[in-house]
């Protein structure tokens, strides 16, 4: 056997020996992506052809690619999406609801535009154009698509399938100017009247009332809680006997695809877990509702089905929509009550108190998304102008 010393990148020395049938075997030590050095060999009719075959064989070995991943820059985008979703499940960091939301947004928003592409065909220009076209239809849809596309392509970068994430360089999405909408006290009372009329059985249309919707609305108005948080309130979370009645927000209702609706033992965020002093109208509604509960256990839900199981948020939304349609009131959702409460507390006590009540970590969120702008300028300006410019007799 003869040897020739040659160092090429991560190759060791290339050696040659005579193989069977007079062919030449070229071989070298190669340091793989896992740090281990392995012997790789190839054959050819001559030293040059054996060396070329060896180099080609080594070039096919990925220095960076983990053996558990079959992704390459030429992999179809849907293969990478499937790998990304599996990776999220392995991390076990996100809730099942969030995972389902990511999967839905990827399939409905992103896949129609990227489903026929390979990873190497997805660049900054393509991503930028896609998001701008989607933003023309809906800012929120473009925002949701941007989130999942950035996360999925980020996985490809971390696994060194792509050299960079094209989503890091796309243009910023610009939110259309909008003002949070909230109900006036007169509109709140009109809604109360419509619900009371329906719960009294005076409407012959729609589902038979179970006399819970009115109390649900009063709890939303008195706590600023999200609809899922209201439906997750248990007996143990309620104190209506103290001088200052209160409700503790400790969970929310979740409905995972293909699974029964359940109570989740924590609300949306850490700061969402809070104890809220409730006004008299809410305390009264809660007391009435508690007298109708058949289950006396501390874990009994305040609002539930006849079997004691959790109500779905969609069911409550449908009931509310039906009742208000009968009253000629449109555009009211459970979340609008949360904005209504934020607006009222801001006007009476300031944005800091409103943010605390809503469980927000940043008052900017309260201002931007929950408080209706007061267009009335301080009337003191009129008095000031009178003093300066009033006509002299």
UniProtKB/TrEMBL annotation:
Could you tell me the keywords of this UniProt record?
Answer: DNA integration, DNA recombination, DNA-binding
> Does the record's keyword annotation contain DNA-binding?
yes
Q: Extract the GO molecular function terms from the UniProt entry.
A: DNA binding
Gene3D superfamilies of this UniProt entry?
A: 1.10.150.130, Intergrase catalytic core
Q: Does this UniProt record's set of keywords contain Glycosyltransferase?
A: no
User: Could you tell me which residue ranges the Tyr recombinase domain spans?
Assistant: 178-390
Recorded hits in PROSITE patterns, A to Z, give: CB, TYR_RECOMBINASE
User: Core-binding (CB) domain location, by residue?
Assistant: 75-157
Membrane-crossing ranges are: none
Q: Pfam families under this entry?
A: Phage_int_SAM_3 (PF14659), Phage_integrase (PF00589)
GO terms for biological process, alphabetical: DNA integration; DNA recombination
Q: Do you know which InterPro entries this protein is assigned to?
A: CB, DNA_brk_join_enz, Integrase-like_cat_sf, Integrase_catalytic, Integrase_recombinase_N, Integrase_SAM-like_N, Tyrosine_recombinase_XerCD
Q: What CDD domains is this protein classified in? A: INT_ICEBs1_C_like
Q: Give the family from UniProt.
A: Belongs to the 'phage' integrase family.
The family database entries (PANTHER family) matched by this protein are listed as: INTEGRASE_RECOMBINASE PROTEIN MJ0367-RELATED (PTHR30349:SF41), PHAGE INTEGRASE-RELATED (PTHR30349)
Q: What name goes with this protein?
A: Site-specific recombinase XerD
């Amino acid at each position: 056997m003869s040897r020739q010393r040659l160092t090429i990148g991560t190759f060791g020395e290339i050696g040659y020996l005579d193989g069977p049938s007079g062919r030449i075997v070229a071989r070298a030590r190669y340091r793989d992506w896992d740090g281990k050095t392995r012997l790789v060999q190839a054959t050819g009719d001559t030293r040059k052809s054996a060396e070329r075959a060896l180099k080609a064989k080594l070039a096919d070995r990925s220095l960076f690619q983990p053996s558990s991943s079959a992704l390459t820059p030429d992999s179809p985008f849907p293969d990478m999406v499937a790998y990304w979703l599996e990776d999220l499940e392995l991390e076990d960091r996100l809730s099942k609801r969030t995972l389902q939301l990511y999967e839905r947004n990827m399939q409905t928003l992103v896949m129609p535009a990227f489903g026929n592409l390979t990873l190497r065909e997805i660049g900054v220009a393509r991503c930028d154009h896609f998001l701008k076209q989607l933003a023309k239809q809906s800012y929120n849809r473009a925002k949701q698509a941007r989130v999942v596309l950035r996360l999925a392509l980020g996985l490809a970068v971390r696994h060194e399938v792509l050299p960079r994430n094209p989503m890091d360089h796309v243009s910023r999405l610009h939110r259309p100017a909008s003002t949070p909408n909230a109900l006036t006290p007169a509109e709140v009372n009109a809604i109360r009247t419509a619900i009371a009329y329906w719960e009294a059985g005076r409407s012959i249309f729609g589902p038979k009332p179970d006399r819970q919707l009115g109390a649900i609305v009063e709890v939303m108005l008195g706590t600023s809680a999200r609809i899922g948080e209201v439906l997750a309130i248990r007996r143990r979370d309620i104190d209506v006997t103290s001088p200052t009645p209160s409700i503790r927000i400790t969970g929310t209702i979740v409905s995972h695809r293909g699974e029964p609706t359940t109570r989740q033992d924590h609300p949306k965020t850490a700061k969402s877990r809070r104890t809220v002093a409730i006004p008299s109208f809410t305390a009264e509604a809660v007391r009435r509702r508690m007298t109708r509960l058949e289950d006396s256990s501390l874990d009994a839900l305040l609002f539930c089905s006849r079997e004691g199981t959790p109500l779905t948020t969609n069911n409550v939304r449908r009931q509310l929509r039906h009742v208000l349609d009968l009253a000629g009131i449109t555009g009211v959702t459970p979340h609008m009550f949360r904005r209504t409460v934020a607006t009222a507390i801001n006007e009476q006590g300031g944005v800091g108190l409103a943010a605390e009540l809503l469980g927000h970590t940043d008052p900017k969120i309260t201002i931007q998304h929950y408080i209706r702008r007061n267009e009335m300028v301080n009337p003191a300006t009129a008095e000031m102008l009178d003093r300066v410019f009033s006509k002299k007799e």
